[in-house]
Task: structure prediction
Amino acid sequence: TDELQWPGGSQEVPSSICSQPCRPGQRKKTVKGIPCCWHCESCDGYQYQADTYTCKMCRFDLRPNDNHTGCVPIPIVKLEWSSPWAVIPVLIAVLGIIATLLVVVTFVRYNDTPIVKASGRELSYVLLTGIFLCYATTFLMISTPDVFVCSLRRIFLGLGMSISYAALLTKTNRIYRIFEQGKMSVSAPRFISPASQLVITFSLISVQLLGVCIWFGVDPSQAIIDYEDQRTANPEMARGVLKCDISDLSLICLLGYSMLLMVTCTVYAIKTRGVPETFNEAKPIGFTMYTTCIVWLAFIPIFFGTSQSTEKVNFLSQI
Result:
């Protein structure tokens, strides 16, 4: 037997087997009619080798390890403060807050001057508060989502805009009623005093707060991990996104009241475009509302055209 030679000149006895053992991460697929022979099939995608003959899918929050012999947790990502998507909005927000505070300090310093009084200082302070909240909400959008942060997002995401638009709407409506009343009578219209204007403004703002309270009652705020958004074909690229449980529909409902105030204010701005040149408050308000409408018309399709990701949350912060 030592002198026997096999094909190819080999003197070693060849293995008398039908199939080679499968590598880790491969299952055996038996050949029909030949139970001792098999083909090796790799467990691909999100599958792992459960046993010798079976590949199974990993749980929704898991992905296979390198050799597909088991599952490991999918990494969790969130918007980091060091990310360019966060740094740019934060810088813009800081500059906006500084500019707003400078205006507030100027108003307080010259609170009793004719210019400040003529501008409607009460509503101006309300408007500046709304602008400040709009900038400050950026920090909430970048903060790590949890129940507390998500609750604050629901409250302040639309509140700052509602306060701003409510103040502008009350101002514009007051101007419109004064000039409309002047065409018919020399008497002043009702509810144009500073106290009345504040009551009207806060009544409009309370509608937004009431809607948020109803939302909390129907759907309590919570932070979730979305594994479907970043579930790519390549398991190595899969990520879970930590975010607040706010759907697109809920977001539109949240911002819808602000948009209603904005559109109504724009209508009154158009109606007051013919006021005398010396009464110049209506024209800047009109210009502001026209540009705001353009921004919102661009914002809605772009927002819903982007993916559900941290970039989308950041995009909202920048707007």
User: Anything to note?
Assistant: Confidence is low (pLDDT under 50) at residues 306-319. The chain is about 55% helix and 15% strand. The CA atoms of residues 30 and 38 lie 4 Å apart. The beta strands are 26-31, 34-42, 47-51, 54-57, 62-64, 71-73, 76-77, 223-230, 239-244.
